[in-house]
Amino acid sequence: MEEHLSVDEQIIAYKGKKSALRQYNPKKPKKWGWKIFVLSGRSGLIHGIEFYGQDVDVPPEGLQVNKPGQVVLRLASKFPNDRNFKLYFDNWFNSPNVQVALALRDIWSIGTLILNRAKGLKFEFDRSPPRGTHLTKCMKIQGVDLFATQWLDNKPVTLLSTFVASTPEIAVSRFDRQSKDFNSVPAPQCIAVYNKHMGYVDEINSYLGRFRVTTHCRSRAYIKIFLNFVNIIATNCWLQYRRDAENVLEKKNILSLYDFKASLAESLCREGTTSGHTKRASLEIHMSRTSRPGPRAKLPSADIRLDNLGHWPISIGSGNRGAICKMTGCSAKPVTKCEKCDVHLCIVSKNCFKVFHITPVL
Ligand SMILES: [Zn+2]
Ligand SMILES: [Zn+2]
User: Fold this and answer.
1) Which of 159 and 250 is assigned the larger pLDDT?
2) Span from the CA of 293 to the centroid of ligand 2 (angstroms)
3) How far is the CA of 241 from the centre of ligand 2 (A)?
């Protein structure tokens, strides 16, 4: 689990009308769909998912928390205690009681705040304050210190946090209409912290949109949801793989998201089979490419190559010679190939066939 995590919503697009959980969201590009809440970290990895409309089962001690706030608490319920996680979310989720409930578990948070969610909180500025003016108020609930900061940008922005207030002040660049130039405007520290860490979900969304698993037919709601989760899991695995692979592999050998998904699909389809030809599944699934096609991996994935199952040598006849042995460092033109992997490999003069099927990294 990462130190900095953000909570945001995501829509699984669905236009069919047969699902009670379907929501309309005018702010999103795909307006109809199911709303899910996603906890994601700096690396883009998704650490938790909640469905909209799920029952609540985390009663915070003596604290009244509204429904959106309970989503945050449910997602945070899996965190280990006393590790000082930092959680970021927007005003839809935020209220003082959510932050107090989190802080009682040593989870520190920051979020934009709708003013009427904090009773008695008021900011009084001098008359016509200059842009960039800010005020911070402290509150104490159940022994937890909360810092509410209002910053006057082109309109007032209010942030509530349990770990950051206004100092040290920062400067942001803003366009001034009168002078028609960019001016430096002061801003409280909490703005910098919030802006830096919100939006991990946007990054993972950009990956989730690529090479989706789709179905040709007009599928049922639960199939759509299932495929969407397959997509999330595969993308998450790739992000984890990429993070680990960066330490041990050269950059050019790290699989792209497309190749990773293609190799995963191939492994799942061929797993446990003895032939290289997979039967077409009754549900026709294909991966749609949204970017320009690149060179395709010709070798089977290591999972298949090393699975010791059904790799039979077959003769291709001397008339078909021409393809070069796929074993690294061999340039012979063999008359045999592996039936399952569908690659040419020597077996007569030397045993590339065996080496190919037992060497972890070629
Ligand atoms: Zn093979
Ligand atoms: Zn060979």
Assistant:
1) 159
2) 30
3) 30
